[in-house]
Amino acid sequence: MLKTNKRPVLAVDLGGTKIIAAVVSPDGKIVSRKYCLTLADNGLKAVIERLLVVANDAVVQSKIDIVGLAGVGIAAAGIINAKRGVITYSPNLPGWRNVALRDIVSEKLGLDTYLINDASAAALGEHRFGAGKGMDNLIYLTVSTGIGGGIIIDGKLYSGSDGCAGEIGHMTVDVNGPRCSCGNSGCLEVLASGTAVAREAVIRLNQGETSSIIELAEGKIENVTAETVALAARQGDKLACDIVAGAANYLGIGFANLVNVFNPDLIVVGGGMSKMGNMLLSPARKVVKQRAFKLPAGTVRIVRAGLGSNAGIVGVAAYVFDQRRA
Amino acid sequence: MLKTNKRPVLAVDLGGTKIIAAVVSPDGKIVSRKYCLTLADNGLKAVIERLLVVANDAVVQSKIDIVGLAGVGIAAAGIINAKRGVITYSPNLPGWRNVALRDIVSEKLGLDTYLINDASAAALGEHRFGAGKGMDNLIYLTVSTGIGGGIIIDGKLYSGSDGCAGEIGHMTVDVNGPRCSCGNSGCLEVLASGTAVAREAVIRLNQGETSSIIELAEGKIENVTAETVALAARQGDKLACDIVAGAANYLGIGFANLVNVFNPDLIVVGGGMSKMGNMLLSPARKVVKQRAFKLPAGTVRIVRAGLGSNAGIVGVAAYVFDQRRA
Questions:
Q1: pTM reported for the whole predicted model
Q2: In contact, B307 and B269? CB cutoff 8 Å
C-alpha cells in the first residue's frame, strides 16, 4: 500500500444540479471521475444514496482499493460548519438543515471525511493547481447563479471560526439595492450574479426596451439567461452591453472592497459569468483602480479561474491532503 | 544584557495629533511613556525630529540602555507598505507621500525597526493584552474621526501582500451614499464615523430640526462634534438618538459584511465612538443578527476595546516581538 502522503483522495462535489465524484492524486491529477444528477427534489436520503453510489463508482473506476485512499473530501454549496462537518443551510439543497453529512459519509465509507464549502474548495484548487499557483494571498469568487467565495491566506484556506468564512456574495454594497435570496438588500450577489443579469434583462425587456436578447431567447422572455445576455453583448446589442456593464461595475465595487480589506496578490474569478472574460473583467478592473487605494490596487491582479468545473474536486482533495499532513 | 526574547521594545504611535513613545516589555507592560504634539503642519522633517526626541525621552525615562532594546515598532495612520516600511499616504499627515520612515528611524536609532498601520497595531494589542485575548480570529475596528481596521487570523496579524490590509472603513456599503475622503462614495467611514455623526447633526440642525445638541455646543453649530451628539442622545434628545441610530445601523451593516466574509470569533470596537458603548453597539449587534448568516452571526461577539489609547503602543510592541521570534 502507498504511504499515507502518496495515497489519493476520494473527492465529491455536491451541487444543486449534479454530484461529481473523483479519485484525485496528491499532485492534483484526476485518476477517475464520475457524476450523476443530484435530483435534490427527491429529498435528503435519496441524494445521500446517490452520492454514495457515484462515489463508489469513481473508486471502482480508479481501480484503487478503497482502503488505499487517504480520506474523503466533500465540497458542498451552502453555509457549511466545516469544524463540525455539517451543512447548516443550502439554497441549492432545499430542506437540508443541519445535516451532519461528514459523519454520515465517514460511517458509510469507513474513511476519514472532511466537508467544506464548494467555493472554498475551488479557491484551494485554483491556489494549488490553477490560476493562483504560488500566490500567498488570494480571493476566489465564483460568479454564477449566486456568488460564492473562498479566501487563501499565507497559502492556506482561511475558513473562519466555524468554517463558514468567505460569503463574499453576501457583502452589502448597496444598502438600498434589491432584495437578495439571503433576505438582505443590496448584496453583491443580487447585483452582479448571473441571476442578477438575467433579472435586469427581463425587467428592461418588459419595460419595452428593444434588444436582440429576445431573439436569441427564441422570442420567449422566460428563456432569457445570463448566457443570452452575454451572447447579445458580444454582438454589440446596446441593452445587453448596458446590463453587462452594470454587473461589471458592481463586481468592481465588490473587488475594490476586497482589495482594501485583504490587500491580496490575486482575485480569481470563476463560475459561468467568468466566461464573459474581459467583457466583464476589464471594466471591473477599472473600477478597482478608481475605488481602491493605490497601493493595493497596484498590486492585485484580477484573472479568470483556470480549472473550470474541476476546481472544487481538486481543491477539496488538496484540503484533505493538507489536513492529513497537519 | 537580557536575552533577546526578554528585551523590551521601543514603541511609537505616530498620529495626526500626537506622537506617543513608550518602552514596552514582552508581557505588554509599559515601562515608560512620553508624548508630544505631532504639529504635522510644520512638515515632514520637523515631525520626524520630534518623533526621535520623544522616542529618546521614553528610553531615558525607562532607564534602559538603548542597545538593550529588542527593536523599534512604529504604528502610523495611513496606507502603510509594511513590507517596505513606507508610509505611502496618510490623511492625517498632509504631504507625507512614500516616506521610508522605517529606514530613517532605524538609521537614526541604530535598531531594527518595523512600521505598521496604527489600527493593525491596535488589533494586535487587543488580541494579546486586551479584549481579544485567546481568540483565533478577530477583527478590530477603530471608529473615530475615520474608521480603521486590523485583522487577526489564526492568532497572527494579517497584513496582506504589501502590508496594507484592513482598510475596513473603506468598504463601500452604500454605492449611492455620500462622498468619502478617500474619493469614493458610500464607504463605511463616511456613514458611521464620528465625522459622519457630526456632519449629519450639522445638516439636520441647519434644516431647522430642534435639538438640545446646539445648546450642548454652546449655541455654535461649528462646535458640534460626535461627543456633543452622544451626550445629547444620552439625555434622550430625539434628533441625537436618531443620528446615533443611523450610524449604528451602518456600523451593523459593516459588521454583518465582516461576519459573512470572516466568520470571526470577535469584533472589537475601539476609537472615540466606542465610548458610546451599548447605545451604539446594541443596535449594531441587532443588525448583524438580522443581516448576517445565522451560523457566523451566532458565533461572533461584538465588544468594546479594552486598552484605550495604549492599544497601538502595546500592539506594535507585540508585532516587533513576533518578528524577532519568527
A1: 0.96
A2: no
On chain B, the residues whose CB falls within 8 A of the CB of A148 are none
User: Edge-to-edge strand order for the sheet containing A18-24?
Assistant: A30-37, A18-24, A9-14, A72-76, A113-117
Q: Which amino acid is at A186?
A: G
Which amino acid, one-letter code, is at B323? Q
B156 and B297 co-located in one domain: yes
Please tell me whether the interface predicted TM-score (ipTM) of this complex is above 0.90: yes
- Please indicate whether, in this complex, the C-beta atoms of B295 and A88 are within 8 angstroms of each other: yes
Query: Which of A161, A172, A293 has the CB atom closest to B253's CB atom?
Result: A172
d(CA B55, CA B32): 10
Q: Assign residue A15 a region (left: φ > 0; alpha: ψ between -120 and 50; beta: otherwise).
A: beta
B160–A contact, CB cutoff 8 A: yes
Residue at A124 is within a domain: no
CA-CA distance, A89 to A91, in Å (whole number)? 7
Residues A299 and A320 in one domain: no
CATH number of the CATH domain containing B9 = 3.30.420.40
Structural domain harbouring B289: 135-305
| pLDDT tops 60 at residue A1 | no
Interface of B with A in 224-283 (CB under 8 A): 250, 253, 256-257, 260-265
As a whole number of angstroms, the distance between CA B223 and CA B187 comes to 25
The answer to whether residues A298 and A153 belong to one domain is yes
- Structural domain count, chain B: 2
Alpha carbons B322 and B325: distance in angstroms, whole number: 5
How close, in Å, is residue A149 to chain B by CA atoms? 8
Q: C-alpha grid cell for residue A60?
A: 471502482
Least confident range from A3-17, A142-156, A187-201, B143-157: namely A3-17
